[in-house]
TrEMBL record, chains A, B:
SUPFAM superfamilies: Winged helix' DNA-binding domain. This is MarR family transcriptional regulator. It comes from the Bacteria. It comes from Mesorhizobium atlanticum. InterPro entries: HTH_MarR-typ (IPR000835), MarR/SlyA-like (IPR039422), Tscrpt_reg_MarR-type_CS (IPR023187), WH-like_DNA-bd_sf (IPR036388), WH_DNA-bd_sf (IPR036390). Gene3D superfamilies: Winged helix-like DNA-binding domain superfamily/Winged helix DNA-binding domain (1.10.10.10). GO terms for biological process: response to stress.
DNA sequence: CGGCGAAAGTGGCATATGCCACTAATAGAA
DNA sequence: TTCTATTAGTGGCATATGCCACTTTCGCCG
């Protein structure tokens, strides 16, 4: 089967990654559907939950996302009362974030469904493989990539 | 170091995948910046290029993306004259897609920059590893996941 | 041939993400 | 202390993606 690989899953690492992300995202989104949360929102709530009233910048950095994008993504969660923000007492530029009681409750609710999806996934690919994949993805995410031309000698 | 792992890169396969996608996406986007194309658009043009005047549904399926999402994503490319559509001559429901000459030219231009980014990435993680990662991601993308509750006995 | 159910897209609506220009506030240099 | 460079966010604008409700065409059955 010389060319059996469906043509075009190009060799682009980025395209392949996005494609997988769309696919897996849909699965987790479906799983979380009953909670009304998207998998991205779930991830964000979780990140906030495990952090200690993190500053927006800290969250953005942890999730490797643009600060402004984080701000946008946070809005629906604030609107729905799951998250609230408050100014840091020592540095008024800093805005800290925390879950509201409803947010904690919603997260608990979502965690139940999430764990089912997670188990479902790991039953398919294997716990070991899943862990390796996550490790590989974290490694990729933390790579210090830079375009050569962008960084001239000095 | 009991909890040394940066707290919160949760064990969620989906969250990890998205995080990596954001990170890598930014790199490829930067690389393609000079062309004015986003890495997603590049991927889409490439997919169209290697297909034979594919129907929208075929593209959506290959990229595992929602048909309507594809339609939306295609708009800026059509507006900018890189892509054009036409009705299938045998089935008027089907809309086929192809690159315009400008689209082909733009793709060529982008491929040059893409290959630099791609090489840069593979120099970091290793060609072998990159290939394995893509294979793993393709496998994940093609998994037939289903929520148990969603599929009752019948 | 008439009509029904499936298939392929479209449009609207909502969230996800990024970049850029701008504002507020702080840390430092003078 | 005052002026400046830096840091943390915000808002606007544009693309990326999905879901759902429709509309148009087909394919097929009676």
């Amino acid at each position: 089967m010389t060319e059996a690989r469906k043509p075009g899953f190009s060799d682009c690492n980025n395209a392949t990654l996005r494609r997988a992300a769309r696919s897996l995202g849909r699965f987790y989104d479906d799983a979380l559907g009953p909670t009304g949360l998207k998998s991205t929102q779930f991830g964000l709530l979780f990140q906030i939950h495990i952090s200690d009233e993190p500053a927006m910048g800290a969250i953005a950095e942890a999730l490797i996302m643009d600060l402004s994008a984080l701000g946008h993504t946070l809005k629906p969660l604030i609107r729905d009362g799951y998250v609230e923000t408050f100014a840091d007492k020592d540095d008024r530029r800093v805005k800290r974030v925390r879950l509201t009681p409803q947010g904690e409750a919603k997260l608990d609710e979502a965690l139940k469904l999430w764990s089912i999806a997670q188990r479902q996934f790991e039953d398919k690919v294997g716990v070991e493989q899943a862990a390796k994949l996550r490790a590989a993805l974290d490694a990729v995410a933390d790579l210090d990539l830079e375009m050569p031309a962008a960084a001239p000698s000095n």
